[in-house]
Structure formats: C-alpha cells, structure tokens
User: Fold these one by one.
Assistant:
Number 1:
Amino acid sequence: MKILITGGAGMLGRTLCRRLADHSIVVADLPEWDITEGDAFCLKASEIQPDVIIHCAAMTKVDDCETNRDLAFRLNEEGSRNVAVAAAACGARLIAISTDYVFSGEPPREPWAWGEGDFTSPRTVYGESKLAGERLISMVCPSAVILRTAWLYGAGGPSFVHTMVSLGTKEGEPIKVVNDQRGNPTSTDVVAEAIAFLLEKPEVSGIVHATCEEACSWYDFACEIKKLMGERFKREIVPCTTEEFPRPAKRPKNSALRKSALNVLGYRTSTWKDALSVFIRSEF
Ligand SMILES: NC(=O)c1ccc[n+]([C@@H]2O[C@H](COP(=O)([O-])OP(=O)(O)OC[C@H]3O[C@@H](n4cnc5c(N)ncnc54)[C@H](OP(=O)(O)O)[C@@H]3O)[C@@H](O)[C@H]2O)c1
C-alpha cells in the first residue's frame, strides 16, 4: 500500500515508518508538508494518490496549547479537517490519531476506564482542539478510523520515559512524581502494531482505543522505569499530588481507556509493564 503519514517525523510517525517499511511510505511533515495549508496539502496528496493516510501531525505540547489556543485549534481542528478533505479527495482511507484528553478524567476512579462511546468532555485546550478535530474528521470522512491513544513513549522521545531516565541517571535529590493521575503508559511500537493490524481490516471505521493494557499512576510508571534501569538509575522516586506539581493544563485524574473495539476484533495489546520492559532494553 502507499501510505502517507502526516507528522511522520514525530515520535509516533517515526515508529510507524519503521513498522510499516514493507509498504511505500511518504513522510508528510514540516516544512514541505503543512496541514494548515489546506489547498497545498490537498494538491500534494493528490499527486501521491495514497491508499491510506495516517494522520499523526498535531500540536502535542499540552501546556503550550493553553497559552496558544488559536494555534492549537489551527493545527488540531482545521489541520485535521484539511487532512480529511485530502483523504476524501484521494479516496484514501484515513486513520487519525487522537487522545485520552478528550475525556474529563474526573471520577469515577479506578477501575473505571473510558470506552469508545463514552461521553467526551475535555478539560484542556489540547483536548478540546483534538476533539474538535475528531468531529470534523468524522463529518468529512465518515469511514475514518479515529484511534485514541495515551501516555506515549517511543524511540528518540521526547517522553516521560526519556525525562525520567535523564534525571534518574544523574546523582541528585529524590524525584517527585505525581501519584494521583491514572492512565495507560503506551509504547509507540504497540500503537504501530495495532495500526498494522487495522490496515488489514479495511472494514473497520469509527473510534478505536489503542493503548497498552492495564493502568497506573505516573509514580508507578516512574518506579517501573527505575526498576528496569537497575543500578544505572541513581535517584529515589517519591510520590506527590497534582497540587504539589502544578502545570498550566489540568491533566485528567483518570484517563485510562477501554479497548472494546480492538477486543471485539480479537486483538489484545501488551500490558504497559511488558511493553516498557522491551522498550527500556532497546532504547537505553
Ligand atoms: N505523545 C503523547 O503522549 C500522545 C498521547 C496521545 C495522543 N497523541 C497523539 O499522537 C499523535 C502523534 O504524537 P507524537 O507524540 O508523535 O507527537 P510529535 O512527536 O509532536 O509529532 C508530531 C509531528 O507533527 C509535526 N507537525 C506539527 N505541525 C505540523 C503541521 N502544521 N504540518 C505538518 N506537520 C506538523 C511536528 O513537527 P514539529 O516537531 O516540527 O512541530 C511533529 O513532527 C498526535 O496526534 C498526538 O495528538 C500523543
């Protein structure tokens, strides 16, 4: 298949390029490809005539979105619409990547996890703009797959795993990590694998959640990174609350996702601990 990947130079995009290397891949990223330039994007895409567009490009810095609301919507809403228009014009299947931040993350708490059909109510500009993008994509391309993932890390980063390893492998004070936000740490390899599976299932459309199985807090995630790094990780990790670590964007308290759509297809993702162990071995 000929597959065009928007944001193909980003963290997930790079993993996809590697995983899908058997296909003919076109990386559509800045500066040559700009999803906010609708006409130019559509024209370039129509020259390629892709079978599939995987849409990863986005404004992904959650805190920056709070202070740059217009830019967040320009990329995540209008940019997504432009990609959907191009997919429709080319007759390409569209797989668009979205996020757990479309949910409020408010209680009910553990063991609650958000299903594909659950009510969305984002609490951040990033989440609002991604949800607005989802809606335009579904309007323009009703057969698109909207694949929501979460808490990503992948080769080269940047990610929470890279930050923890960089901090933890230097001597210093204990590292405080938030223990009252829960989600699904997810390797980009796991997402790429799920996308490879979906490429074999052209009949699938609509919202599909794809994260690793099982949920934990950022503190649990950090402790597992420390454990896997062994003696190379020199610092202690101590739990703290969200209030002790204020950020511009209000993170969801519980954004764990249920993978009903994939499970119905008989597909199971790895647990976050298994995927993390594979990643730490290969990356560090
Ligand atoms: N990272 C996570 O934890 C996470 C969680 C849930 C969902 N997601 C979603 O997963 C997708 C991929 O995320 P990621 O972590 O791989 O993000 P990333 O590393 O920031 O990759 C996004 C890519 O899009 C590019 N881009 C930005 N503006 C563009 C434009 N106008 N036109 C074309 N390309 C543009 C970026 O280029 P520059 O670097 O030059 O800006 C970057 O290469 C996104 O849709 C994100 O919302 C991510």
Note: The mean pLDDT is 97.
Number 2:
Amino acid sequence: MDEITKLISGFRSFRRENFTDNRSRFQDLVRRGQSPRIMIIACSDSRVDPAIVTGAEPGDLFVVRNVANLVPPCQGDGHHHGTSAALEYAVRSLGVAHIIVFGHACCGGIRALVESGVESENGEPGATDFVGSWMEIARPAYDEVVRAMPGAGVAEQAAACEKLGVKTSLANLETFPWIASAVAAGDLHLHGWYFDIVEGALCALDAENGEFRPAEDLFPLA
Ligand SMILES: [Zn+2]
C-alpha cells in the first residue's frame, strides 16, 4: 500500500504548502467559480501531466485526458462522448479562449495503433474492448505515415504518427459547429503542442508551415 500512502503524504504537503499558503486564491476560486482561459487535451499517460509540465496553478487549466490525447469528430449519436462533453462545457459554458492538443513522445496508444497496423499486415489483428476502436480516430494520421514512410520501423512511424495525430485532432475540433464558429469569430484559438519526454522539449505547431517548432520560438517569453 506504499503507493497509496505516498498520495496521502503528498496531499498533506499540498495542503500545507499550496492550499494553506494560497487560501485566499482557493476561496476566490470557490466563491467566483472557475474561469480558465485554456483547455488542454492531453494523454492519460502518467508521465505527461500538462499542469505539472507547464507549471499551471489551480484554476488555470480545464483539462481532459484520454488515450493518446485524441479529439473524436463531432458525432451527435446519443452515445456517451466524454471528450466531446468536456469540449462543449469548456467552449459553450466556460468560454475558454484557447484549446491546446497536447501530444507527446513515446505514446503507448499511438504505438498500439502502429503495431496493430503491422500485425494486421501479418494477419494477426490485436483485440481490445475499447482501445482499438478509440485509436481509430488517429487512423488518418497513421495512413498518412504509412504512405510517407512505408519502410520505416515501428518507433519511427509512431513518432511521426504522434505529431500527425495532433493535426488530426485539431481538424476534428473544427467539426464541432460551436468551435468552428468561435474560431471564425476570433474568440477561440486552437494549438497543437508536442512534449518530447526524451529530450525534455516542448514544441508547438507552426500554422504557417505545418511544422513543429520549439514553443518558445512561436511564443517568445517577455
Ligand atoms: Zn500517450
């Protein structure tokens, strides 16, 4: 149970160092409610917590995390769409000004997609209850990778697919009518980021040329 008591101990530290010292900030957030300016869609991967990576504070980020930081296309089919529900709340109720799709290196979900492609080529499709069909959202990215680099190994294809998957999710964001209209009105800005956990680098998608560049180049620090 050490892994659980570590969390309790961590909470005690948080309460002492963050909550107590910033009591007025928390009380303010409770009284006025949250009004984050930024929504982040990140992977569930335990290594890529966007709040930790960006040094964000309580109240700063509205976050949804799922396998491989994917945004599904808008589908009003009455099924349970957790990510789409979070998007709707962030955009229509909270009125966030930015949505960041937060991709990352060494993504297990993307790797599973690439490996399933290799397995199906070999006639050995992998079977999952939910992950396989969820990862189909990134299929257009994978297909593009296979076309562009057919002879590359799994690791190389996966790395390319992680970045293209961010672009696929950005395109899917625009299929939600209230996102497309907010973007067109200039009230909402969409961003693609990529956190390289090997190099410890943060890159951002340059809309000018479709390339990922160091985030500080696109957003210079004051
Ligand atoms: Zn991931």
Note: Residues 1-33 form one domain.
